[in-house]
């Protein structure tokens, strides 16, 4: 059984298969024989040039011959040579760029993705589709995993395309449990904790006092970032400015041409509020990124303001 084959034996067997692949005749006589020999040669070259990421062999092969059928034949030879190893390869058929025939740039006319794992292959197809939108021609399945392939028509030229294809491979094999958070990500509670650590948050009473203190050392602005529907339903605070969240940065960045007239300095005390004080904390942190380090928000938002019995309209 396959499970009884040791790792060392598996590698040895693969090397034997690569060196002694029997799929091509020694003296090809027909066109079909020539294609078989060419496909086997390409398959061995792809395997030899592959790199290993997360235990999966990956690689890209560009061919100047626009022959996607040959690429599929290559895929079957790769499968025969690597029966025990996970792999994911991209083969692009290409012709010289019509805009610069003297350069090394190519126009890729079609693309074949082959792999040993159905999930890796599906991710690669989806990623390639997203990077080259509207160019997916077909996704084939002949009943065997290794023969599955994506066909993408005319993906374009330039080194960006090659980098994009490598990105497809790397991200396809760097998979994780979709229900587990990716490494380096943070929950919204963690994000709020981190951004609030940089803010001098104010109670509703403190915000009211600052807004009405003529001796306050810098200009003070109370800014309502709630959407119109919420303001109409809940009411507004007298003396506040209305700048909805989606326009906030542009309206308060002193360097932006679309800024408000009052947003001409970096030390203003900009006190934001939303419904309950969550969106306002994130928005204030965004203003800090612009250099507006006195930006802050009201703890508890508009609800807390009403609960404190402060004036509204």
Detailed description of the structure:
It is built from 11 helices and 10 strands. By secondary structure, the protein is α/β, with parallel strands linked by helices. Strands 1-2-3-4 form a 4-stranded mixed β-sheet, sandwiched between helices. Helix 3 links the parallel strand 2 and strand 3. Helix 2 crosses helix 3, helix 4 packs antiparallel against helix 5 and helix 6 packs across helix 10. The longest helix has 18 residues. The relative contact order is 0.09. The N terminus is likely disordered.
Give the SSE layout:
Elements: H1 7-19, H2 31-48, E1 51-53, E2 56-63, H3 68-81, E3 87-96, E4 106-115, H4 118-131, E5 136-140, E6 149-152, H5 159-173, H6 188-196, H7 204-211, E7 220-224, H8 228-234, E8 241-242, H9 248-252, E9 269-273, H10 279-289, E10 296-297, H11 301-307
Parallel strand pairs: 2-3, 7-8, 7-9, 9-10
Antiparallel strand pairs: 1-2, 3-4, 5-6
Helix pairs in contact: 2-3, 4-5, 6-10
List keywords for this structure.
four-stranded parallel beta sheet, alpha/beta, 313 residues, four-stranded mixed beta sheet, disordered N terminus
Helicity range: 25-40%
Strand residues, percent: 15-25%
Q: How is the quaternary structure best described?
A: single chain
Number of helical elements: 11
Based on helices, strands and strand pairing, what is the structural class?
alpha/beta
Quick summary:
The protein has 11 helices and 10 strands. The chain has helices spanning 7-19, 31-48, 68-81, 118-131, 159-173, 188-196, 204-211, 228-234, 248-252, 279-289, 301-307, and strands at residues 51-53, 56-63, 87-96, 106-115, 136-140, 149-152, 220-224, 241-242, 269-273, 296-297.
